[in-house]
């Protein structure tokens, strides 16, 4: 059977859409299958962290996304403890608060413009593979099954992933928190902060704006652990919010409510033959920290250029296996970190709560510790083990992530200049600033001795993929320190002391 595409992607959420855009931009034929007939206006995620914004900036969509939301330069953790993000390196020293559907809209526009095929109302119901490709049985709205074939398959179809189930991959883990209430409401009194969060021993509440007068409320009540199927009672939601925040801000006019439980789970392997898992299909965790969508987008950025390299013929042996070896530890870290944060927030006993608050306040006031925390939450500090990277020929190298000649795309390609063996950008290259995005100027502070990095030949550009996708650069001797050693070596020997 002749293949319908080079890559089939199941799931048109943010993860699948970014991956489809990357592959189509690289000239790879890809088809994205989505069970829902239309794109929905509901949203699960609000936070877009700094590393994700860097990924989107390399693809030319960050500026448009930033205009849809609000920038938050500090996160309130517990009580009066705040984590300062304003000193993060780079052009995005903040977390962007914007509804998930805005991210999906921009990524879908990019994927379609690049030539990706998006088929809605197409549900994947079966998966089989052989040595040469993958067959996916698809059921459309009329109920008629059809088999699509491709060289590779990526399951980005969420926590209830059909691809993962049909591959027979386990999804071990447990429920982190149950009976979480969700509601989209209007507020008579706008909160003083963009993100509002509070917790007591038996209640938790979180408020985030959509930007159009509506707010998302997330609340949890230890005193009433109802089943997910039980409707949300607005009186209970108001009472829990008052306990956690001190006020319900005049909550009214709910347009949508729901209950859910949050799991902590991760698949043991992100790859099974010619099939891969990404996003919530591979890992799921508590909403604490707002890491879910960000981790999925970074999965897609890591996998996309590797699939393109393999299909274009310049991938070294084993490159596709590095997707699991690099992203699985990151997923594990996020699952554990968000779970620990959630359990700390929901601590019930007074003494542990007091100790928790004191410890967090102390940590956020120690600059080195605060920087490490900010780097972990934002994703800026994520890096992978060093290894030899391929050097594609100019004819085989994929194009840039954005449109040819576009400013963000050109800047993204420049930032991804790497030496063989280092698949992460190095500090020191001047990048034109954009006042709409945040801090203007260099992407990273310049270090002495790195000025020659800007003169690398074009063949050493990895023009597609995860722009921080690699290890930290090796330490380099400071020029002054090296010069001091040379001068010291040239000094005449001191005369011997006479007894």
Concise structural overview:
With 499 residues, the chain is an alpha+beta fold. It is 30% helix and 22% strand.
Write the topology of this structure.
Layout: E1 5-10, H1 14-25, E2 30-34, E3 47-48, H2 50-58, H3 62-66, E4 70-72, E5 74-76, E6 82-84, E7 95-97, H4 100-114, E8 117-120, E9 123-129, E10 134-139, E11 145-155, H5 162-167, E12 173-187, E13 196-199, E14 203-209, E15 214-221, H6 234-245, E16 251-266, E17 271-272, E18 275-277, E19 283-284, H7 292-312, H8 322-345, H9 350-364, H10 367-378, H11 407-415, H12 479-490
Parallel strand pairs: 1-2, 1-11, 2-8, 11-18
Antiparallel strand pairs: 3-7, 4-7, 5-6, 9-10, 10-11, 12-15, 12-16, 13-14, 14-15, 16-19, 17-18
Helix pairs in contact: 1-4, 1-7, 7-8
Please provide a written account of the structure.
The protein has 2 domains: about 1-170 and about 265-499, FAD/NAD(P)-binding domain (3-Layer(bba) Sandwich), CATH 3.50.50; about 175-260, Alpha-Beta Plaits, CATH 3.30.70. Residues about 390-435 and about 440-490 have low confidence and may be disordered. The protein is α+β, with helices and mostly antiparallel strands and about 500 residues long. The protein has helices at about 15-25, 50-60, 60-65, 100-115, 160-165, 235-245, 290-310, 320-345, 350-365, 365-380, 405-415, 480-490; strands spanning about 5-10, 30-35, 45-50, 70, 75, 80-85, 95, 115-120, 125-130, 135-140, 145-155, 175-185, 195-200, 205-210, 215-220, 250-265, 270, 275, 285. The longest helix is centred in the last third of the chain and has 24 residues, at about 320-345. Helix 1 (about 15-25) packs parallel to helix 4 (about 100-115) and helix 1 packs parallel to helix 7. Strands 1, 2, 8, 9, 10, 11, 17 and 18 form an 8-stranded mixed β-sheet that branches.
